[in-house]
Amino acid sequence: MQQTETETFFLTSEKKDKANYQTMMEHTIMAILGSLGDSKAYSGKTPQELKDLLQSQTLLPEKGLGFEAVLQQVSKTILPNLLRTSSDSYMAHLHSPALLESIASELILSTFNQSMDSWDQSPIATEIEIATISQLAGLYGFDGNSDGVFTSGGSQSNLSGITLARDWYCSTKLHHDVKKDGLPPCYGKFRIYTSEISHFSMEKSAHLLGLGYNAVVKVPVDSACKMDAKALENLIQVDMKQGLLPLCVVATIGTTDFGSIDPIEKINDICKRYNLWLHADAAYGSGLILSQTYASRLGPLGLCDSLTIDFHKMFLLPISCGAFLVKDGSTLEAFSLHADYLNREEDEEDGYTNLVGKSMQTTRRFDALKVWMAFQTRGKDGYGQIIDTCIENATYLYEKLSDNPAFEVATKPEISSVVFRLRASCDTNKKIRRSLLLDKGVVIGQTVYAEKTFLKFTLLNPLINHQKLDSLIALIEQLGKEV
């Protein structure tokens, strides 16, 4: 294919390519800005209305339309209907707005398109990830023997933790090498313990590892939605008497719905007593580490054998961006396999790090840049203010709802999620959420607590203020009378 004089494929050192890159980026920015005509979180269109918008468009036309024509189509049909996570009317999920500096970092990493599997595909990017992981490990209380890797998010990090727990158990207890020989004959007896309200990635991980959902033992929670440590120990003892093989406990440091934090010290004591691997899913709660006021709520995470961190939640970075840390870096060898075309052994001997040996993925994005730039831009003080604001907003909302007899609140928040319901039928609360979404441009969550439908505010946006929360409480109360 012959490139015409005015056609641009990539950003190169050529003057015309630089000019075209700048023009395309500027036009894209103007289209984005032009789509922000109000403060709603969503336009309100139904699924069918969105389908109708796209009916006349073809994915692959016979002849290319050109960038400007496509951008016009995107500006007309897509941009106005995207969910606006930066709106103070969005509080449905653990899905945060993106800090501006992290959006700038996305432009850099997408433009240069590093692949994090081998050093020769990502030289400075590899060194940035190594340095970032090292400093993150220290931040969470791990020592110099620790290590880690960036992941796509909580599900992959949790799968990584349970994988290492399984291999560690088989190696140390059964003297069996899963990596070479596959699962041992007794694998059907393996048991993983986690809170009854933990993330569904625990069951998914057990399935993917060949252990099945039945390997996951759900531990009851107390009135604050924290794992009941006594119940955990009782379950372990009962299983052991039945000849089952406990290998791992997964503590949740910020449950998806309630933000509740499992008692890590008590759970660690049990793991030490029975010689079990302790993994902590801190995908939600990990951000508290940067708060001078609330970091102690996490507990000593450095006690854990492995740890899940998500940066696209409380840290306000673009999806996807997670990390997986381990106390003993040598355990990551479970993911290592040498290939002559990628991670040659002589590279390591000569000081070149090929990160594919630490990861479940081969090709990975340079997500560490987002953390590197955002952390340096905000500093611990700036991040601390953001996180404290979100937590204090949740406390304020909880207190306002608790004082209002029209509402019922599930639990007192530890982080930034508030689960509540209007004292009405379940259908009423469901209709309120749908009305807010389609008629008001307000997006909130919905879940189940005590077998009833509850609404949920997940407060990750520091721009939300008390006045906004007051107005939403009043609006929900009013809608309850109308729907």
Topology:
Elements: H1 15-34, H2 47-54, H3 67-78, E1 90-91, H4 100-112, H5 123-139, E2 147-151, H6 154-173, H7 178-181, E3 190-195, H8 201-208, E4 216-219, H9 229-241, E5 245-252, H10 264-274, E6 277-282, E7 306-310, E8 322-326, H11 345-349, H12 368-402, E9 407-409, E10 417-422, H13 426-440, E11 443-449, E12 452-458, H14 466-482
Helix pairs in contact: 1-3, 4-12, 5-12, 6-8, 12-14
How would you write the strand order of the largest sheet? Answer: 2-8-7-6-5-3-4
Determine the strand fraction and express it as a percent band.
Answer: 5-15%
Shape: globular
Kindly provide the name of the CATH class of the largest domain.
Answer: Alpha Beta
| First and last CA, distance | 60 Å
Poorly predicted parts: 1-5
Known CATH architecture of the largest domain: 3-Layer(aba) Sandwich
Oligomer: single chain
CATH superfamily of the largest domain: Type I PLP-dependent aspartate aminotransferase-like (Major domain)
Number of structural units classed as domains: 2
- CATH topology title of the largest domain: Aspartate Aminotransferase, domain 2
Count all strands and give the number. 12
Q: Quickly count the helices.
A: 14
Could you state the order of secondary-structure elements as H and E? Answer: HHHEHHEHHEHEHEHEEEHHEEHEEH
Overall pLDDT score: 95
User: How can the largest sheet be summarized?
Assistant: 7 strands, mixed
Q: Radius of gyration over alpha carbons? A: 24 Å
Supply the helix-strand structural class: alpha/beta
